[in-house]
Amino acid sequence: MSDTAPHIPDDAAILPGGSTMPLLGFGTWQITGDDAVRATATALAAGYRHLDTATVYGNESEVGRALAESGVPRDDVFITTKCPPHRAGSERETLEQSLEALRTDRVDLWLIHWPADGPVNTDLWRALVEARDAGLTREIGVSNFDLALVDEVTAATDVAPAVNQIEWSPFLFDAGTLAAHRERGIVLEGYSALRHGTLDDPTIVSIAERLERSPAQVIVRWHIQHGVVVIPKSVDADRIRTNADVADFSLTDEDMAAIDALGRS
């Protein structure tokens, strides 16, 4: 592709604590070592201002290094990391290790990475609330929680997750799930949007060809027009830039409905 700067969308969600969460983020799952430094640096240079990592990704230090060396002010970047449930009882220590690796004194969003068994979820959630109240994270949320678990931790603490990060793509679209999160004031964040054949789907490919865009751009744009956070990942510099180049076109209502209809859940 050309060296022209991508048209980065400025769409964002306002979270309960007042944070502005860009709907477009850069995902770093399965990107480690020098690849993680290079990919994160490329994303920041392209204009991404939202980085998603996790303790179990093993790349927080690389993400932190890329941000520190980028010249982009820390306060201009929304950083998410996640606590694995097997660190229950050591949540504060886990977050402090993440902060050290990321070279920051607080993250913008800290998530329970996936549900634990039984009452541990509530204990974990209380620890996240305490970390938020201590100023170590601006917002707190969950990942891979169903709505019953979301309601369980909310009822136990009177604090609802700001965000629920779940697998989400055109093939998994469910209007009821999206509406239920909105009714609770919870932002839906999707991952793995560009996997499992979505890039080859005939409906998406047809829309992309008509708009002279890539299928990935169409899928990213679909998320944004639904108000759903999307975190595409890649180690390829051209793809990193192209995936973000979605602010200068829109999908029609007919396009959105056609993509919605691909939902298989």
Keywords:
10 helices; alpha/beta; 265 residues; single chain; globular; two-stranded antiparallel sheet; TIM Barrel
List the helices and strands and how they pair.
Layout: E1 12-14, E2 20-22, E3 26-27, H1 33-46, E4 50-52, H2 60-70, E5 78-83, H3 91-102, E6 107-112, H4 120-133, E7 137-143, H5 147-157, E8 163-167, H6 175-183, E9 187-191, H7 202-211, H8 215-226, E10 229-230, H9 237-244, H10 253-260
Parallel strand pairs: 3-4, 4-5, 5-6, 6-7, 7-8, 8-9, 9-10
Antiparallel strand pairs: 1-2
Helix pairs in contact: 1-2, 1-9, 2-3, 4-5, 7-8
Keywords: NADP, Oxidoreductase
Pfam families: Aldo_ket_red
InterPro entries: AKR, Aldo/ket_reductase_CS, NAD(P)_OxRdtase_dom_sf, NADP_OxRdtase_dom
Short description:
This protein is α/β, with parallel strands linked by helices and 265 residues long. The chain has ten helices and ten strands.
What does this structure look like?
- This protein has 265 residues and is of the alpha/beta class.
- It has one domain: Alpha-Beta Barrel (TIM Barrel).
- The chain has helices at 33-46, 60-70, 91-102, 120-133, 147-157, 175-183, 202-211, 215-226, 237-244, 253-260, and strands spanning 12-14, 20-22, 26-27, 50-52, 78-83, 107-112, 137-143, 163-167, 187-191, 229-230.
- The strands form two sheets. Strands 3-4-5-6-7-8-9-10 form an eight-stranded parallel beta sheet.
- Helix 1 packs parallel to helix 2, helix 2 (60-70) packs parallel to helix 3 (91-102) and helix 4 (120-133) packs across helix 5.
